[in-house]
Amino acid sequence: MKRAKHIPSVWQMTRHNRFTHRLGNMTRRHFGLNGKYRWLIIWALPIVGLLSLIWFLIRVVPKPSRATYPCQRVAAPLAGSFVAWVAGLIGSALAYRRARHLLHQSRYVVAGICAAVAVAAVWWSLSTANSNPAGAAFVPSEPPNSPMGVAKGIYPGRVVWVRDPDATSWDSTGRWWDDNNTNQGVVDYMVSKAMQTLTGQPNDKQAWDALFRHFNQTKGFGDIGYQSGEKVVIKINMNQDSGGTWGSAAGMPSPHVIYSFLTQLIKVVGVPGSAITVYDAARYIGDPIYNKVRSNPDPNFQSITFVTSSTRNGRIGAARDSSNPVYTQAGTAYLPQSVTGAKYLINMALLRPHTLYGVTLCAKNHFGSVYFNSWTPEPLHNYGGRSRPMNTYNCLVELNGHRHLAGKTLLYFVDGLYPALHQSGNVIKYVSFGDDWFSSVLASQDPVAIDSVGLDFLRNEPRCTEVTGFPENYMHEAALADNPPSGTFYDPEHDGVRLASLGVHEHWNNPVDRQYSRNLGTGSGIELVKPSFTSPDGRVENVTAGKRYDCIRHAVDEAAPGDEIIAGPGVYHESIDFAGKNLTVRSADPGDPAVVAATVLNGSDAAVIFSGGEDANCVLAGFTITDANTAIYASNASPTITSCKIAANQGSGIKLYQSCNPTITNCIIAGNGGSGIEMEAPRTGRVVKYNYATIVSCIISGNRQCGVRGDMPTMVNCTIVGNRQHGISAFTPTLTNSVIYYNGFDYGFAQISSASATVTYSNVQSGNSAGWPGTGNLDVDPRFVVPGYWADPAKPTVPVEPGDPAAIWTGGDYHLRWDSACINAGDPSFVAAVAAADIDGEPRIISSRVDIGCDEVGEKQADLSRNGIIDVEDVATFVQAWLSGPGEPKWDVLCDLYENELIDLADWAELAKDWLWRADWYELGKYLTRFSSKTAK
The pTM is what? Predict the structure, then answer.
């Protein structure tokens, strides 16, 4: 039977007509549209949302970094609202259908619940699509490079930005502020560079003197610097510190930055510790900061005052000064006596978003300086938040404009080493800086300029999602305080004198170039300066650019692709990131073992990083790399690594993460805590990003895991010995002319672990006289001059039994003795261009056929006694032949090293070169120790 056609009731029709009439009147009244275009308003938001979603997907999916672009940060919330709106309507429709079905079954209660869900879903979709503007991504209200206000400072509007990734190395082990996670030396260098660049002075003393003199001149005190005994107060932001133990990732100020500033004031400026106060009147100053300062036994550090919300544990409770009120629309506040009694103030803020104000930088730092009914800024919260529209009153202007705050501020400084998610969140890495810590500090004499720069950094970081609404309103009001857009008469002292401009505000041109109007020469706004790290007497030289540096990483940071950088001898406690630039970074003479041993990279996490698509034209040569977690880390890069000694690192010597094809030649990779060379291929769906390393003429020995592990390496003329696990454990390795012996110190590990290895003309220990299956393979004692061994850590000269977990590696000498079967046993079709030199840099091929392993011996060498060592016995034999003539008993044709049928000065030169060159390998101290122990017996 046919269902009756539904005929709406009179009430339904009347209700529909009333709604349509009301919507039509509203549309015509507000938009000037008649009924013909009524659909345009009804569907405007869904259409905009759909277009935003399409635009976002087209632009961001191929290149995720575009999500940080301002246009995408506008499109994203609109697209999200559209998705939520569609989901709500679908949910509502399904709930409505279910309600009708249940109603027909007379299940009234459940039907009512479903009807309520339908209504709620519609309400949710509409409320999501019409969310508060403060929830939308922040978009500046004015175009880029449109300065407003009056710039302040020795160099007006200057903001100095110093970034050094070596300052921060926290990997969630321990606490980020631990000394091994924050490098005090690097932080000191950053603070020093910031001060010098801000003032344009060549050293710290002159920089601080210029700062104090400029302050005193502008305040009418005359051309004088700091005078002994004058008080300095430092405001820090302890908003997260309620007096308990800090969480390991808590967003707190860096104790190292504070300590560096105190050191500068005491040691450079000459401020007595008793004249320095560090304070946050509304919070506590935790032990990581307090103990860091007090750990210095200098009486000046012991006498620094710490002022907090209450007196306890060596801190002093703040006392308000009732005679210096701060008048705001939120009420009257009072400042700490430590502030009003000081002559100078340093505003040391943090770089982070804020859930109420959008950002918290220098201006909001003084929320910890006010007393209402207690030490709390709570009355101010409703007078300047991000939800308040532009061109309205903002309490931050009156607060910061007070004569005891802005009027006393010597310096504005932002600690951005480990920024937090927001004022209550943990520290976060920045996507906009390669998913690394921000590792930066900012310094300025202009309070508005430094906050403007901080806002630009924060709004362009995708993880800083709280930078929404109108966080720049206070910057506009402060920059134009003498005639603000809101029309407010800002007068924090109620003395009838209106505030003047507090500084200059503008936004940079884009997040890549980061240029402001003074950088571009187009206006009198902000100048963002990133200082050069050049040093006139630096031991590192960019020979292409003619510049010198104290640190290799600084030379690399400022180098252009193709530059050559030479590091002089010394120990470099730093990490180097090539950042996608094809450079040559080398020691003074990579071919001299003594120079290599004297040029040391001592990293913390990864000592050297290749992760930006570097290719074979990117060269690292002639360094000893030690004591890092991983000596060399590469991802999606194919550099050339040559003549390096990579030893005694905590993890693997070289780690290749994905799609790497490096060439590693003439390197010693020994005694590392992981594998010598480790390759890891991540899988994305069905795609595996294998690594294809080419390893030539290298010694890989004594590593705690495998010699070479993972993926598809090609090894030519390598010596892989003494590793605790497999010599090679790889998917499809290819070996030629190589020695794989004495590996598997831990039981159960084969020399080669692979289902599809290709091995030819190699000496592989396998317990089979025929050697590993393949053409030309051997299985014989390689006859090294001195094999290495695993030893008792208490007695390094005593080998231990296999499997001992405490054993340490004692290196050997992997030159071949004269009677080694590896001599002249390599691939007869070998082409010298594949491995043009052996581990010593000597040519291949010396004799008729290439040798197996890292060392090329052949038949031409100064080891005249053929005992595998060039020693005094060989020199004596040579001298006797030199003093004789052909046919005489002592004359020996083998002494004709130059092969000119004479024994003359040319032969002496050959003897000296061969003898002295190899002296480095014999580790004379070790042999003397062994000789002494034998003599004692």
Answer: 0.68
